[in-house]
Amino acid sequence: MKLAYSPTSPYVRKIMVLLHETGQLDDVTLEEQHGTPLAPAVGLLPQNPLGKVPALERADGPSIYDSRVICAYLDDRAKAGLYGSGAARWDLLTLEATADGILDAALLMVYESRLRPEEIRMDAWIEGQWGKIERACAALNTRWMSQLSAPMNIGQIAVGSALGYLDFRLDARGWRKGNDALAAWFQTFDSRPSMQATVPPAG
User: Fold this and answer.
1) Are 190 and 13 in contact (CB under 8 A)?
2) Given this model, what pLDDT does residue 203 score?
3) Residue 202 — very low, low, confident or very high, per pLDDT cuts 50/70/90?
4) pTM for this one?
5) Is residue 46 classed as helix, strand or coil in its secondary structure?
């Protein structure tokens, strides 16, 4: 398999952590691609018409894209059971969606400051996105700790990648404030070899 990736993409990090945790890292060749909403990765368009990483090229079918689709595919391939079954599966899918929502909002904040000219940036928009992140972190801290403290699952991988991205790009915002349980969980999860091996480079 071939994974189109960017080393700073938090969505890619989800996949890389999953590959480490499920022993599939050696089954994937990495192909670095770079793009933004204003300039999509042209070389990626045959694999993903949206021009976004991650995209996974497979030998047994067409390329697949979106981190949630790729993670589910790789979990199924490894028979790792990261998504659970029965009622637990819906909880874990919702937990993953919550983490991805944090990432969506964080990326919109980063793009607003990096891609939009300063004279037309919208502070209210930025704060609106941070409000989503604050509410999601509070929910993780109060509603989802039992799933985060369970055996390894997709929710933990997604949340770990999301919180890692907040530290990477929005550390000054202080997501840990008022979220003591979540912060303690992340300190432990972030020390896992899979997380340490996928720390994004500075820049």
Assistant:
1) no
2) 67
3) confident
4) 0.96
5) coil
Render pLDDT for 14-45 as a digit per residue (tens, 0 to 9): 999 999 999 999 999 999 998 888 888 888 89
Residue 72 contacts residue 93 (beta carbons within 8 Å)? no
**What string of H, E and C letters represents the secondary structure of 77-130?**
HHCCCCCCCCHHHHHHHHHHHHHHHHHHHHHHHHHHHHCCCHHHCCHHHHHHHH
Tokens, residue 34:
């770079």
For residue 29, give Cα distances in angstroms to 19, 69, 121, 153, 160. Answer: 12, 18, 38, 24, 23
Classify residue 201 by its DSSP letter: P
Write down the residue that tokens 């990495």 correspond to.
Answer: 30
**Is the CB of residue 143 less than 8 Å from the CB of residue 81?**
no
